[in-house]
Design a protein that fits this description.
By secondary structure, the chain is α+β, with helices and mostly antiparallel strands. It has 2 helices and 6 strands, in the order ααββββββ. It has one domain: Immunoglobulin-like (Sandwich). It has a 6-stranded antiparallel beta sheet, with no helix packed on it. A hairpin with a 2-residue loop joins strand 4 and strand 5.
Length: 92
Amino acid sequence: METKADIIKKGIADLLELPRDIVLDLPKITMVGNLQLYIENHKGIIEYSTGMVRVNTKTGILVVTGAELVLRTIVVEEIIIVGRIDRVEFLQ
């Protein structure tokens, strides 16, 4: 559900031509082939195994499934997952 604050932030981002992911604290996901996934603006890891990683974000839970998944980097603002990535999906 979108709040008035989110609507105002969207308007400001559009007016000033600022990236929405930064202004609205949205996750930014970059995938390199099916071997690496880079997630910015996450809210923490919910579950981790070599076959699945679940990451909390402002817009819902990001589920990454595959094989031999490894969390290469975990810092406050970013996570890098490597391995064979089969699927990436959002659950709300």
